[in-house]
Structure prediction request, 260 residues.
Amino acid sequence: MNGIQNSAMVPSNSRVKTLNPFIDSEGILRVGGRLRNSDINYNQKFPILLPSKHKLTYLIVEYFHKNFLHSGPQSLLYQIRQNIWILNGRNICRKVVHNCVICCKANPTCTDQIMADLPKDSVIKKTIHSMCQVWTSVAPFTLSIKGREKVYINKIYVCIFICFVSKAVHLDIVTDLTSNAFIATLKRFIFRRGKCAKLYSDNATNFVGANIELKKMFNLVCKPDEALASYMVSEGIDWKFLPPRAPNFGGLWEAGVKSF
Prediction:
């Protein structure tokens, strides 16, 4: 400011040189510009220039922050620059908002939830498809079958088997959402990929019904022959159902849906 008063020139090493400052008739330092012929407010054409490290500047920013209902840093800076230009104003606005007690209470810092450990079946070393999750699409796909006289429209579903170990995805077509259809799909999966030790699924009625039917078949076969019963027990599949209304337990197959 002394340089402008003495020589009307801003020193080359000054931070405000690019703002082309000048002193008005009232002795106030303002930002220069090319809007002298504009019909807007004089303070908007030539905002008052204030330093960043001054108590008055901080009090002015606090006043604007409270007057505009505790607005954020960006909105606060916009409102101030309508009449005042503060050097390094963005950081000053952030500091005022950060130190405001009311804003801190209105926007508390959320703590990060610690995630639980991965399931044991997902981290132990097993052969591929030894631990699987199964999911059947709820929305059907339309299949057109051309007959001799007309075209028949049938609905089909897709059953997804996902390996816990390798995350490999096996897709198979299901004719309907009945237990018999799923049992047939499970047999095709076992014949192609091998038997899995554990099978996880949700509580859909077709899965629960299929599990009941398989248990009935297992009990029927086991009754006449104890040797066969022991073999079936040693080679049987442990079927586990996820808790009801807990889709987060089936995140693996939800990600596998992206494969098709």
User: Anything to note?
Assistant: Residues 220-225, 227-233 have pLDDT under 50 and may be disordered.
